[in-house]
Amino acid sequence: MSRSGAINPVPRPVPSDAALPSSSETEEIDFEVIELLFFAYRDFTSDPDAILDTSGFGRAHHRVVHFVNREPGLTVAALLETLKITKQSLARVLKQLIDSGYITQVAGPEDRRQRRLYPTERGRELALALARPQSRRIANAFQGMDENGRAVVKAFLSGMINPARTDASDKTG
Amino acid sequence: MSRSGAINPVPRPVPSDAALPSSSETEEIDFEVIELLFFAYRDFTSDPDAILDTSGFGRAHHRVVHFVNREPGLTVAALLETLKITKQSLARVLKQLIDSGYITQVAGPEDRRQRRLYPTERGRELALALARPQSRRIANAFQGMDENGRAVVKAFLSGMINPARTDASDKTG
DNA sequence: AAATTATGTCAACATAGCTGACATATTCGA
DNA sequence: TCGAATATGTCAGCTATGTTGACATAATTT
């Protein structure tokens, strides 16, 4: 606080919080679950991040390797749709992954304009190495839950996801 | 993450964890839940993002306003611990929020070095506006679940979070 | 009085998004 | 068959949000 000076030096007992709007604000915001989601996801991603740090890749690479591994033969357009990013964003990380031998491209058998993406053996290993700690964390969080409880969790997560758009509008900027 | 610089990441297949001699490869990676978490969180954050877009703030501002609103009187150090970012990262967004009248600082009543953070009325409104759609989404995902089901979901999310560090080590760079 | 702590700030840099514009190959439709 | 549309690539530059390192100031602790 060097130069700016005057920072409310007065120890007043907290800005009057007293005047709650209180109108028909019976809205109960679920702050608890909002925060649980924030912290859960933050820690969930910290696992692979630690591994990626040692390999020179980032979270963006992780996502690409993951989905290509999960759905070999994916087209670039489909990957963009899944990640909901622009092709220019994808281009950088995809190029690095291809150049480093984690992913290969094959011209589409029917539509040769397409570049279908496949993981190499190395790509598969990386995807697995990154997924492993996340899967362990999930298994740990599932500890003590029966199959029904797990189904409830999955239903909740599914319910958090936007319904798939059938629209297929342009996103290729 | 990463100051690693060098494009073309080292092709080594990630620490000791990766090679797996395929011996007891009974590992079942829970790709399903991994992806559910990815999509759920992506869509979960897209709600406030849309609002923030119109106000010139970003996701980082959202987090700060959220936690200050949730815990008025928070110290800067506590906020850094919660967000797990560096003070230099926080500085930018916090300054903007203070300058725009969303957050105020008050010298700590006991330790006057502290800058305790409080939301202004406007800050409270913003926090609420951002939380509202997220809370709605959560309520929607909870649809049809009884109290027990909701408790299971919360237990799962809690189980995903790292145990709190008691350590309190330096992070202030 | 000296050391430590809480916070702020300057400077430089990395990652991963974005828009806009344009190029190439391929496919499709009139 | 030719022109439009499509799938992809790429250049250039911008923004948001993280990082380190170094140093400043005020207040507290030892």
Q: Could you give a quick summary of the protein structure above?
A:
Chain A is mainly alpha-helical and 173 residues long.
Q: Can you give a write-up of this model?
A:
Two copies of one chain form a homodimer. By secondary structure, chain A is mainly alpha-helical. Chain A has a single domain, classed as Winged helix-like DNA-binding domain superfamily/Winged helix DNA-binding domain (Arc Repressor Mutant, subunit A), CATH 1.10.10. Chain A has a two-stranded antiparallel ribbon with strand order 1-2. In chain A, a hairpin with a 7-residue loop joins β1 and β2. The two termini of chain A are 44 Å apart. In chain A, 27% of the residues are buried. Chains A and B meet through α1, α2, α5 and α6 of A and α1, α2, β1, α5 and α6 of B. Chain B binds a DNA duplex (30 and 30 nucleotides) through α4. Chains A, B: One of its GO terms (biological process) is response to stress. Chains A, B: InterPro entries: HTH_MarR-typ, MarR/SlyA-like, Tscrpt_reg_MarR-type_CS, WH-like_DNA-bd_sf, WH_DNA-bd_sf. Chains A, B: It comes from Hoeflea olei. Chains A, B: This is MarR family transcriptional regulator.
Broad structural category of chain A: mainly alpha
CATH top level class name of chain A: Mainly Alpha
Strand line-up across the major sheet of chain A: 1-2
CATH topology-level name of chain A? Arc Repressor Mutant, subunit A
Terminal CA distance of chain A: 44 Å
Q: What's the β-strand tally of chain A? A: 2
Mean pLDDT of chain A: 85
N-to-C order of helices and strands of chain A: HHHHEEHH
Strand content of chain A: 5-15%
Largest sheet of chain A: 2 strands, antiparallel
- Largest contact between protein chains? A-B, 77 and 76 residues
DSSP helix fraction of chain A: 40-55%
CATH superfamily of chain A: Winged helix-like DNA-binding domain superfamily/Winged helix DNA-binding domain
